[in-house]
Amino acid sequence: MSEALVTMTGITKQFGGVVACRDVDFTIRAGEVHALLGENGAGKSTLMNVLSGVVTDHDGEITVAGTPVRFHRPADAQAAGIATIHQELDLVPGLSVAENLVLGREPRTRLRLLDRRAMLRTAREQLRQLGVDLDPRRPVGALRVGEQQLVEIARALSLDARVLVMDEPTAALADAEVRRLFATIEELRRRGVGIVYISHRMEEIEAIADRATVLRNGGVAGTVDPRTAGPGEIISLMVGRSVETLFGSANAKTGAPLLEVDDLTVRPRHRRPGRCEPAGATLTVRAGEIVGLAGLMGAGRTELLETLFGAGAKGRRSGSVRLDGVAYAPAAPRQALRRGVGFVPEDRRGSALVLGHATGRSIVLTALHRLTTAGIVRRRRERAAVAGKIAELAIKTPSANVPVGALSGGNQQKVVFARQLLAGPRLLLLDEPTRGVDIGAKAEIYRLLHRLADDGMGILLASSELPEPLGVCDRIVVLRAGRTVADLPAATTDAAGILAAAMGQHSRPTRESA
After folding, report:
1. Helix spans in 341-402 (H)
2. Where is the ABC transporter domain positioned along the sequence (predicted)?
3. What are the residues facing 372 on neighbouring strands?
4. 376-377 and 372-373 beta bridge pairing
């Protein structure tokens, strides 16, 4: 066995009366990928916050290379060779890629001025080592979420850490970017870097992890070899029960066409780098049907959903969109909501939630008109609506008054769903609906989608996790450069077929096949 870079022994941390970590032992060895698994709220984030110096008032001991240490701030952990890639991106949108990569470590000239030439040279080298083709002069705020994630990874790797904590590093990455990251992880492993890998994707854990430690309710439920244990055993350790099926059963019957998109093209007034607007998108979603949107990063999935919700780029449009047989071209989300269209965006924290708002207020935000009389919100009606959605979606929160930012990622996502469902949509647009949520919350979301489809709702779901549309959807529409290139029945296709279409090895479907 390789040397232990970091050993955590008996780590215990309470927040008020809630025990977040209870007597946790965790070891990271040189050249090892050690997966840390568990449902949201199991204690993973708290344990890693202890390791990274964010949480300092804890019980237990940390040793680095055999020497006991006590971190009083994140800078202490970084100085000890521990770097963290956070699930929620920690970048400055107004700065360029290069400025973010060297933030806090900016190269200086002899006159102590910022050496921009050296900064760009350093940034290009860091991106090259990761295999990322990005202009280091571009503002980070203009990048897609997946591209921002790659910048975050490049910055963490540039610290030359001996221990690297990766918290959901592939949550916003397409398959090609995931393979690139895995190649980088293999190189780091050869260099003797120890990696803590936090992910809810079982196939990733089996592919790259040497060990997997599972936390449940703040304690260690077990440590296994993921290559021999299999996902069933790991999931059982995570949730404390056997999970027979993750995706659930498909809806047996569908109704009339609800959404019909025919050769939709958007020519924006102002082009934004990194965006791929619809350029010949064709698809149909029937009542009671779950349709998947697949494609490589930059294929235009998010842009198509935003356009259908009235939140896309402004500009000239061609083609047609019909909702319930009537022309549909919302200029703003409010118009889409009035027509019965809901949208769960990819970035829940940045685009869907006000983290300081109470959970209850967050749920009713899009449906206040249903809860008012003469412009006055009826509090009893509001409380009843909130309580109903919290119970229906099993949102774990001590109270409706708790800030939504204090909830786990899976419960935050349920709040976003609750808000949209309270508005009573007939068509639900979903962009990466299970990004960053644990396996138990995923199963609950999948069951919810099947229940909504059984009730006659149409669902259009964009996902970069190919097992997700294959397991949940009835059909899968594949986009490439904003254009529909395939419309595949989920029951008779596989990941290879979807990737072949996404890479241009599949003929475009006719209007009849769509």
Report:
1. 359-364, 379-392
2. 6-242, 259-506
3. 377
4. antiparallel
Q: From residue 113, how far is each of 104, 117, 118, 338, 471 by CA, in Å?
A: 14, 12, 12, 54, 55
- Whose CA is closest to 139, among 131, 127, 147? 147
What is the share, in percent, of the chain residues with pLDDT greater than 90? 44
Pairing verdict, β 341-344 and 290-294: unpaired
What is the rounded CA–CA span in Å between residue 85 and residue 153? 6
In 218-355, alpha helices (H): 226-239, 301-308, 333-338
Let me know: does 466 contact 346? Beta carbons within 8 Å: no
Closest CA to 171 of 391, 398, 366, 436: 436
Residues found in the chain: 514
Which domains, ranges and CATH numbers included, belong to the chain?
4-239 (3.40.50.300), 246-340+425-514 (3.40.50.300), 351-423 (no CATH)
Q: Distance between CA 272 and CA 291 in Å, rounded?
A: 28
Residue 68 CA to residue 75 CA, distance in Å, equals: 17
Separation of alpha carbons 137 and 3, rounded Å? 40
Number of other residues whose CB lies within 10 A of the CB of residue 499: 18
| Per-residue pLDDT reduced to its tens digit, 287-327 | 999 999 998 777 899 999 999 999 998 999 999 999 999 99
What mean pLDDT, rounded, does the chain reach? 86
What is the identity of the amino acid at 351? Answer: S
Q: Which two tokens stand for residue 176?
A: 């090609």
d(CA 486, CA 468): 17
